[in-house]
C-alpha cells in the first residue's frame, strides 16, 4: 500500500478521503505539478515549483509552497523510491472544500493539497530506436493552457484519440500551427534548426522543453522558438516530444506518413544523449552535496 500526502498528513492511500464538495472534484478548480526524480534526486524541482507558484497566483489560490521540497522528499522515502532509476511526485492543489457555487468561497477555505509518488518507465531502447507515431488533431483546449490546471478533458480525449489511432502522441493544431502534444512539447528539426513554439498562452511551458532548449544551445545546435506550421511537418527532418516522463521521445510517423526517412534522426539522438548527461550531472551534484 503506497503512502500519500493529504492536507498535512502522510497516510496509507486507502485512508485518503476527499470531500464531494471539493472544488477540484466539482469544477476542476485546481493546479498540479509533476516532478521527476532520478535515484531519489529531484530534477529541476525549482523550475517545477516556480511554474506551480505562477499557476497558484494566477488562480488566486493562497498556498505557501515553502514546505513542498520536504514533502516531495518524504514521499519518496516513505514509498522506498529513493533508489528508483525513474520516479515522480504528482502534486495537486485545489481551491478547497465549499458547497457548490461558482464564485470563490466567500469565507476563505484552506486549499486541498494531495501528492503521491510512483515510478515511471522509459520505453525499451529498442522501442526508442524504432521511434514513435503521432497524429494531428484540432486543439480543443482553452486559451490559458500555460496554466497547469487539472482541467485536462481535452488532453485526455486527444490522447485517447491517438491511442485509438494506434499512435503514441497527439499533436495539437490551432490556427494552422502544430503547438504541442497532449502532455508534452513538440520540437521539429527544420532546415537544420531545432524549432519549438515560443512560450505563450497556447502551450504549457514544459520544464523538459526549457532544459532541452538550453542543451541544444550549449551543444552548438541551432535552436529557435517560433510557431511550426502544420504544413511544415511534412518537410521536417526530425520531430520529437519532450516531457517529464517522456524525456526526449522521437516521432518517426505523423498521420501515417514517415517523417523524412522514417528513422530517428541525429539531432534527436544528440539531444537525448545530452539530456541523459544532464540527468547524470544533476545526480552527481546531489551526491556531492550530501557527501560534504
Ligand atoms: C500540455 C503539456 N505540454 C507539455 C508538457 C511537458 O511539461 P514538462 O516537461 O514540464 O513535463 C506537459 C506536461 O504535463 C503538458 O501537460
SSE layout and pairing:
Blueprint: E1 3-6, E2 9-12, H1 23-27, E3 30-38, E4 41-42, H2 45-59, H3 68-78, E5 87-94, E6 112-119, H4 125-130, E7 132-138, H5 153-164, E8 169-174, E9 177-180, E10 185-190, E11 193-196, H6 207-218, E12 223-225, E13 228-229, E14 238-243, E15 247-254, E16 257-258, H7 266-291
Parallel strand pairs: 7-8, 7-15, 11-12
Antiparallel strand pairs: 1-2, 1-6, 3-4, 3-5, 5-6, 8-9, 9-13, 10-11, 10-14, 14-15, 15-16
Helix pairs in contact: 6-7
Bound molecules: pyridoxal-5'-phosphate.
Structural class: alpha+beta
- The rounded Rg comes to 20 Å
Number of domains: 2
CATH class assignment of the largest domain:
Alpha Beta
Give the uncertain stretches in residue-range form: none
Amino acid at each position: 500500500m503506497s503512502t500519500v500526502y493529504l492536507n498535512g498528513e502522510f497516510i496509507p492511500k486507502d485512508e485518503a478521503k476527499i470531500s464531494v464538495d471539493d472544488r477540484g472534484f466539482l469544477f476542476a478548480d485546481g493546479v498540479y505539478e509533476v516532478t521527476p526524480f532520478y535515484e531519489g534526486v529531484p530534477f529541476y524541482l525549482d523550475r517545477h515549483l516556480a511554474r506551480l507558484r505562477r499557476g497558484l497566483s494566477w488562480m488566486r489560490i493562497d498556498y505557501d509552497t515553502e514546505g513542498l521540497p520536504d514533502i516531495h522528499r518524504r514521499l519518496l522515502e516513505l514509498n522506498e523510491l529513493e533508489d528508483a532509476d525513474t520516479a515522480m511526485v504528482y502534486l495537486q492543489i485545489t481551491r478547497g472544500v465549499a458547497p457548490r457555487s461558482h464564485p470563490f468561497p466567500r469565507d476563505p477555505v484552506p486549499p486541498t493539497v494531495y501528492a503521491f509518488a510512483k515510478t515511471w518507465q522509459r520505453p525499451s531502447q529498442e522501442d526508442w530506436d524504432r521511434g514513435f507515431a503521432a497524429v494531428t488533431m484540432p486543439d480543443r483546449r482553452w486559451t490559458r493552457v500555460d496554466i497547469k490546471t487539472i482541467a485536462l478533458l481535452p488532453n485526455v480525449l486527444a490522447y485517447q484519440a491517438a491511442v485509438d489511432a494506434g499512435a503514441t502522441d497527439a499533436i495539437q493544431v490551432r490556427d494552422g500551427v502544430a503547438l504541442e502534444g497532449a502532455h508534452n512539447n513538440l520540437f521539429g528539426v527544420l532546415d537544420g534548426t531545432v524549432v519549438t513554439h515560443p512560450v505563450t498562452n497556447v502551450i504549457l511551458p514544459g520544464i523538459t522543453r526549457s532544459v532541452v532548449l538550453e542543451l541544444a544551445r550549449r551543444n552548438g545546435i541551432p535552436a529557435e522558438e517560433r510557431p511550426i506550421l502544420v504544413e511544415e511537418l511534412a518537410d521536417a527532418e526530425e520531430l520529437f516530444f519532450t516531457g517529464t516522463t517522456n524525456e526526449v521521445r522521437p516521432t518517426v510517423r505523423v498521420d501515417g506518413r514517415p517523417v523524412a526517412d522514417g528513422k530517428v534522426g541525429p539531432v534527436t539522438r544528440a539531444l537525448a544523449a545530452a539530456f541523459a548527461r544532464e540527468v547524470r550531472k544533476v545526480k552527481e551534484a546531489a551526491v556531492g552535496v550530501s557527501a560534504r
